[in-house]
Each structure stands twice: as C-alpha cells, then as structure tokens.
Amino acid sequence: MNDSQGRRARQVRTLVLACLQDMSQERQKLHRDWVTEITNCIRENLCRAIRLYTKAKDTLNQCRQELNLLCLQQAHVIGVTTTGLVKNLDILRHLRSKTQNYELQHENPNGEKYTLDVSFFERLVQPKGDWGLRIPFSILEIQRRMHPSIAQLIKDTLYPNLQDHPSVAEYPNVLGFAKRLFWLDHQEPEADTDPSRITSTSHSNDFEVDMTAALISLLIRQGKYHNDDIAVITPYRGQLQKMRRRMGRSYEVVVGDRDAEDLEKEGLDADDRDRTKPSALQKRPY
Hints:
Blueprint: H1 3-6, H2 12-15, H3 26-73, H4 82-87, H5 89-95, H6 120-125, E1 142-143, H7 148-155, E2 163-164, H8 206-221, H9 237-247, H10 257-265
Helix pairs in contact: 3-5, 8-9
C-alpha cells in the first residue's frame, strides 16, 4: 500500500483540486461523481423537455378539438364509427344534439318508426312493437354514494328495493349542521321579473341567494371544507346568475359548460364574464 492509499479518503470537493498523479483508487470515486453529476443534469433537461412537449401537445390538441367542434356544430348529420366515438367522445359530448322535429319523435304516430328522441339504451330494454328484441337488464340494488338519510328520498319515491352499502353509513357528519338534510319553508317573495322577458322561466329569489351564501360561508369557516368541496344546485337560470354574482365576490365560482351557455343565450352573463371563469362542474358524492 503506497502513501496515497494509506491516507484517509478525501472528499470529492478536495479531489477536484488535487493532482491526478497523487490519486489511486480515488480516481474512481471522482469519476463516479462526474458521471452522476452529468447524468443528473441530462435527466433534468430531459424531464423539462418532456414537460414542455406535453404542454405544447395538449395546447395543440385543444386547438384542434375546438376547430373540430366548430365544424361539427355546423353539420346536420354526423357519422362516426365506434372507434371514432371513443376517440372523440369529449367533442361529441359538447354537441348535445336534440331531436326538435316532432315528425321524428316517438310521440308522433308518423314518427314512431324513427323515434330519434329515444336513446339507444332505451331501445334495447324497452323496444316498441315487434321490431326489436328485448335485452335482459338489471336495476341498481345497492347504492354506494349517498348517506342513508339522503338515499331515503329516492327509496320512498322511485326505488323502494334500493339498499345501502355499509360504507355509506360511515360518512362523517357535516360540520356546522345538525342534520345532513333539511327543508326550508319561507314566505319571502320572488324578485320582480324583467318586463321584457314575460315568457322567461328564469325565476330568482334574493332571500334564497343571501341564505345560500351564508350557508357556504358557515361551511368554509369550519376549516375543513374548501371551494371545490361544495356544490350549489338551482333549477332556474335567473337564480344561478344571481348566485354566481353574489358568491363570486368571495369565492371562485365554477359553472358547468351547459349552464354557462344557457346564461349567455338569455343574456344573463353580461355582468359576470369578468368576475368568474366557466369550467366543467365535477360530480361529487353526497
């Protein structure tokens, strides 16, 4: 063993400044450090390039989808294969085509042979006349989403044989509330309807808007819930527009694409375009 081998192993930062002729096995240590440093640098550059590529590719795909959607919205008939349906499902969902011609609906005796307003699933399980074969089907018997106190609503009305999975009974209580479900009856009148929209069904109630905003504020103050944990549902566009404006002052309001489109058609979003950013509404368990 020579003197350099007998000396105590030196740190890499010391070896960088040392003379190679004074090293023995320390050269391997220095070499490994160099290889590791270069490899890490290449790996970081590669990961950064992949992220930039993925982002650019997503942006390009989004532009293509918007262009395709624009073309499809102007078409009267769209043909698609099963493979194409799967690949373009997101685009086709935005079309939301409806059969508005009464001559092609099943309620019209002359349109019964077309029944374009009947879904493919309904045609399979409930065929009309002798032109179709009834496909066997099963009905949901065990639900795994709603707490029993909420599921009881549809048990008493639609699904008397529906059963609860044991896991739904373990849902934690809603902080700040004595019950998960309650009904409110009040005598506060609706807001005045715009005289220029006599036929509009966009009702609204300022008292309900303020009450909803107060309930959301109560939930947020519990310290456990965030904006994306809370969903507000209303059947009226006028009410939606007022809730959007009222709660947009304090929270980030997320409105579904279909609701945002309906608001725009009725001219109810003119005052809110700069306050909120429409996005897809995510479904969450009860």
